[in-house]
């Protein structure tokens, strides 16, 4: 079922979400990344939370998603959150316990209720 939802989101919901993602006053951000084999630039809507030295992105579908593999291969991406674009580097997968220590308790609790076990941590480039 999770794969069916992921595919629906990838091909139906994500193109619609990209019309608003990254804009001020909207909850979704957009991550721009380069394809690991094609070299083509892609944009994917994500949820991104600001943490001390960068951002955390929940991975509700786990780590086996194309956009994540692209970011990991490149070691960098551009993340637009609330109308501001950030260059981000050093992608690192962290578990929910590490993420919970970086997030406000209400936010961590929400991700826990949705069963999110892994997050992508990105540092803001200098």
TrEMBL record:
One Gene Ontology MF term: oxidoreductase activity
Gene3D superfamilies (UniProt xref): Electron Transport, Fmn-binding Protein, Chain A (2.30.110.10)
The protein, known as: Deazaflavin-dependent oxidoreductase, nitroreductase family protein
Taxonomic path: Bacteria, Bacillati, Actinomycetota, Actinomycetes, Mycobacteriales
